[in-house]
């Protein structure tokens, strides 16, 4: 992680905390979040399959330990599998300033691997949340030269911001933006010389090298039901093509259990591609 980028954010967070202490008594009324474990299964109309396992555990002094695993199988030409391992540590979520450290390992060893380290600082007011993040990704891509498999390594640095509003009633809304800056020109991966050296799986996985991501969401909370509608737009760093994701999520709260349902659509206008997907999950808190 680039500490030169994160240091100003962390120093600002530490300086701001005492000034807010007297105005954040409302945080004392919020019960400490319990530990939780959830499992989610997903599928799309293209016969793709997803499995996601996540845990959020109470740790030392109000901190939280986060861990997760994901597996995806994509049907098509070619058929491919990817795995993701996640680990994170978050300071007390009921503090006016929350610090987060996250790490992620994603991809397929024979084709493309992405290791991500991210730091985030979140400022919490009674009705507003502001988060700033810095991200470093190490990218390991496989290619063929003289009938031998070789590795090509480069990196990207991302900066992001998120703003969320929570009304005095049941409405919430938010907006987030992330921009990546690559150490190499990723547009070269769309040229013929690169296509001849990359396997079909590597080419398909390289579509995850996004340039920008913008998400807007709107939520409403009932007594035992949370609803959220989100719209995400992504631009590829390789060919500049844009994709849009529209998703409706519902969480049903049943005492120590919660049931999660997601319905969504992926749309790539320039390629006239559309795909519907859905997932169902179950979580337990203690």
Features:
286 residues, mainly beta, Porin, 14-stranded antiparallel β-barrel
Quick overview:
10% of the residues lie in helices and 62% in strands. It contains three helices and 14 strands. The protein has helices at 3-20, 192-197, 200-205; strands at 36-44, 49-58, 64-74, 80-90, 97-108, 112-124, 128-145, 148-166, 171-182, 210-221, 225-236, 242-254, 257-268, 273-285.
Tell how many strands the DSSP assignment holds: 14
How much beta, percentage-wise? over 45%
CA radius of gyration:
20 Å
Helical content stands at 10-25%
Largest sheet: 14 strands, antiparallel, barrel
CATH topology: Porin
Q: Helix count, per DSSP?
A: 3
* CATH C-level: Mainly Beta
**CA(first)-CA(last) distance:** 33 Å
> Mean of residue pLDDT?
87
Which architecture name does CATH use? Answer: Beta Barrel
Work out the count of structural domains.
1
Query: Which regions contain 5 or more consecutive residues with pLDDT less than 50?
Result: 8-22
Strand order of the largest sheet: 1-2-3-4-5-6-7-8-9-10-11-12-13-14
Oligomeric state as shown: single chain
H/E order of the elements?
HEEEEEEEEEHHEEEEE
**What form results from the Cα inertia axes?**
globular
Q: CATH homologous superfamily name? A: monomeric porin ompg
């Amino acid at each position: 992680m680039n500490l030169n980028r994160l240091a100003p954010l962390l120093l600002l967070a530490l300086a701001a905390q005492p000034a807010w202490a007297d105005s954040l008594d409302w945080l004392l009324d919020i019960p400490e979040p319990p530990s939780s474990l959830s499992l989610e299964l997903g599928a799309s109309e293209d016969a793709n399959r997803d499995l996601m396992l996540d845990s959020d555990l109470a740790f030392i002094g109000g901190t939280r330990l986060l861990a997760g695993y994901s597996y995806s199988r994509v049907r098509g030409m070619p058929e491919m599998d990817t795995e993701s391992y996640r680990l994170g540590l978050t300071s007390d979520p009921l503090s006016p300033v929350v610090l987060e450290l996250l790490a992620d390992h994603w991809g397929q060893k024979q084709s493309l691997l992405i290791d991500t380290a991210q730091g985030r600082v979140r400022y919490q007011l009674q009705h507003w949340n502001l988060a700033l993040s810095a991200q470093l990704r190490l990218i390991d891509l496989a290619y063929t030269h003289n009938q031998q498999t070789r590795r090509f390594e480069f990196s990207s640095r991302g900066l992001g911001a998120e703003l969320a509003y929570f009304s005095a009633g049941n409405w919430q809304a938010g907006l987030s933006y992330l921009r990546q800056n690559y150490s190499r020109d990723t547009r070269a991966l769309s040229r013929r010389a690169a296509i001849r050296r990359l396997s079909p799986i590597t080419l398909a996985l390289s579509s995850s090298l996004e340039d920008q991501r913008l998400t807007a969401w709107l939520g409403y909370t009932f007594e035992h039901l949370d609803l959220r509608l989100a719209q995400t737009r992504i631009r590829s760093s390789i060919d500049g093509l844009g994709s849009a994701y529209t998703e409706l999520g519902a969480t049903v709260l049943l005492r120590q259990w919660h049931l999660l349902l997601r319905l969504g659509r992926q749309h790539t206008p320039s390629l006239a591609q559309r795909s519907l997907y859905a997932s169902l999950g179950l979580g337990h808190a203690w």
